[in-house]
Amino acid sequence: MSQCCSDKAVETMKDPVCGMAVNPDKAAAKAGFANQDFYFCSQGCAAKFREHPEKYLTGEKPQAAAAPASDADYACPRHPEVRQKGPGSSPSCGMALESETLPASHGQTEYTCPMHPEMVRSEPGNCPICGMALRLRNVKL
Q1: Rama region for 35: left / alpha / beta (φ>0; ψ in -120 to 50; rest)
Q2: Most CB atoms within 10 A, among 9, 36, 109, 122?
C-alpha cells in the first residue's frame, strides 16, 4: 500500500512483467489468468504477459533482453533520460533497461510509444500524446 496526499490509502498491485507498482483503478491494462486478475503499467507489458503468462509468474526478477554486444546502449522505456552501457535496472522505477541497438532482421523498422502503441512512426522521436521516447520495433514482412 502507498499513501498520497490524503488520508485515504491507495492499494497498488505489482505489474508482473516490469515490477512497477500499479493502481488497479488507473491501470493501462488488465488481464486474467488462472482465476486471478493482473494489472499493467502499459499495453506493452500486458501484451508480453498475454503471450507467455507463465514466464512472468515464476517469481523471477524481470531481465532485459540480451543485446548483440555488452557495450550496447540501454535506456529505460519509461524514463528515456536514464541511459547506460549494458543491461540493468532503471534507478528511477526499477524497470529493466532495454537495448537501443536494433538486432539484425529482415523486417521493417518502426518506432512506437510504450504507453500508446497506436502511435507508430517511421523515424525516432517522442510520442505526441505523452512525450515519451519512441522505441524501436521490428515488423516481420
Answers
A1: left
A2: 109
Cell numbers at 46, concatenated: 500486458
Residue 68: closest CA among 99, 108, 105: 99
Instruction: Tell me the C-alpha distance between 70 and 38, whole Å.
Output: 33
Burial (CB < 10 A; 0-12, 13-18, 19+), residue 28, is middle
Which residues, at least 6 apart from 139, have a Cβ–Cβ distance to it below 8 Å? 107, 108, 109, 110
Q: Which residue has the cell 507489458?
A: 45
Find all residues with CB under 8 Å of 93, minimum gap 6, and list them: 20, 76, 78, 79
For the whole model, what pTM was predicted? Answer: 0.41
What ranges in the chain are assigned the alpha helix state H? 43-51, 53-56
- Under DSSP, is residue 25 helix (H, G, I), strand (E, B) or coil? helix
